[in-house]
Amino acid sequence: MALLDVRDLGVVFKRKGTRPFTAVDGVSFSVEPGQTVGLVGESGSGKSVTSLALMGLLPKRGAEISGSVTFEDTELLTLSDKQLRDRRGRDLGMVFQDPLSSLNPVITIGLQITEVLERHRGMSRKEARVEAAELLDRVGLPDPQRRLDEYPHQHSGGMRQRVLIAIALACRPKLLIADEPTTALDVTIQAQILSLLSDLVSETDTALIMITHDLGIVAGLCDNVNVMYGGRIVERAARHDLFERSRHPYTHGLLQSIPRLNAPRGEPLTPIRGSVSDNIEWEQGCAFAPRCPNATDVCWSEPPELKADDGRMLRCHNPVALGDAVTEGAL
Ligand SMILES: Nc1ncnc2c1ncn2[C@@H]1O[C@H](COP(=O)(O)OP(=O)(O)O)[C@@H](O)[C@H]1O
Ligand SMILES: [Mg+2]
Predict the structure, then answer these.
(1) Where are the alpha helices (DSSP H) in 95-156?
(2) pLDDT (tens digit, 9 = 90+) per residue, 275-320?
(3) How far apart are CA 41 and CA 229, in angstroms?
(4) Do the Cβ atoms of 315 and 305 come closer than 8 Å?
(5) Domain range summary for the chain, segments of one domain joined by +
(6) N or C: which end of the chain has fewer CB within 10 A?
(7) pTM for the full model?
(8) What pLDDT score was predicted for residue 78?
(9) Entry's SMART domains (predicted)?
């Protein structure tokens, strides 16, 4: 049975005087216990709104949420704020992009961790302090005892992200959602944080939803990958299938815009032309049509459905021919 089951999730932002904006549209996916699932797409494709909606963290006013999100046997979308807060603290952890704004600047790192341990795992202050030092040690912070009494600003971005991961794991969540956890960090630190995350989730059998605009990140981490475009999932496949033969022209384009180590010297990268602002409405046709090299008349006039195709889910009238796919070895 799935740990998390997202069915037909929709989020429409409505503000007085503006046209309603559909940020997430009919998104369905599930996460098995211990599995790592990727949610990938360009900035603005609806990844963060999806994760905030399923964690119950979108503002009540102005955001209309539809569909269903079940975690184990509980429907999350209809829980009260208090029930949801409790559930979040206990079973669902989250790591955000910006580690500084997620930490309280005027409270020591130790207190920010022990607070969680006392509230959600019923520890005494003393027990919590011991456990907090252990957690900091596990996320690779040297001299954890001393760190406990320090403040967030005394640490670098990479260190702060380690602290946030420690806090997220403090409750031993069954599911961790990491939203662009390394985007704000240096490239060398990114790799360390990713391998740390990957080690921790496999050691503790925690399921992970990895949200990123970077296909290179999911290549090394995820069992299953959902590619989002304009608020909808356009392709979903097992990692290997996706990288071996991506079928959606958007996924294909993303893969071709990743620098490859074995590319001939001087070979230019092929970026996807245009930007998300060129999208047409999904109601009208395929939102990606204006940027798509494969687009034909049907793409401009008929919204493609998400359908099983070639061992994956695909929303496309004119998928990439099999012979044209980029191979995983190329990454
Ligand atoms: N609170 C909000 N009110 C109105 N529009 C929003 C709000 N939050 C996000 N959006 C819009 O929803 C779309 C998806 O945003 P987001 O999920 O943050 O994208 P990303 O894939 O980069 O995480 C964007 O066009 C964004 O401008
Ligand atoms: Mg985002």
Answers:
(1) 99-102, 109-121, 125-138, 144-147
(2) 888 889 999 999 999 999 999 999 999 999 999 998 999 999 999 9
(3) 6
(4) yes
(5) 4-222, 249-324
(6) N
(7) 0.91
(8) 93
(9) AAA
Task: Please report which residue ranges of 238-318 form alpha helices under DSSP H.
Answer: 239-244, 249-256, 297-301
Beta strands across the sheet bearing 36-40:
92-95, 175-179, 207-212, 36-40, 224-229, 232-238, 312-314, 307-309
Which protein residue's CA is at the shortest distance from atom 26 of ligand 1?
A: 44
How far is the C-alpha of 67 from the C-alpha of 322, rounded, in Å? 34
Name residue 226's beta-bridge partners.
39, 236
Tell me: the pLDDT tens digits for 235-278?
Answer: 999 999 999 889 999 999 998 877 766 666 776 667 788 888 88
Residue whose CB lies within 8 A of the most ligand 1 atoms, among 14, 21, 97, for a mutation test = 21
**Which residue type does 15 have?**
R
For ligand 1, is residue 166 a contact (CB within 6 Å)? no
275: Cβ below 6 Å to ligand 1? no
Distance of CA 44 from the midpoint of ligand 2 (Å): 7
DSSP class of residue 278 equals: G
CB 139 within 8 A of CB 163: yes
CATH superfamily of 4-222: P-loop containing nucleotide triphosphate hydrolases (3.40.50.300)
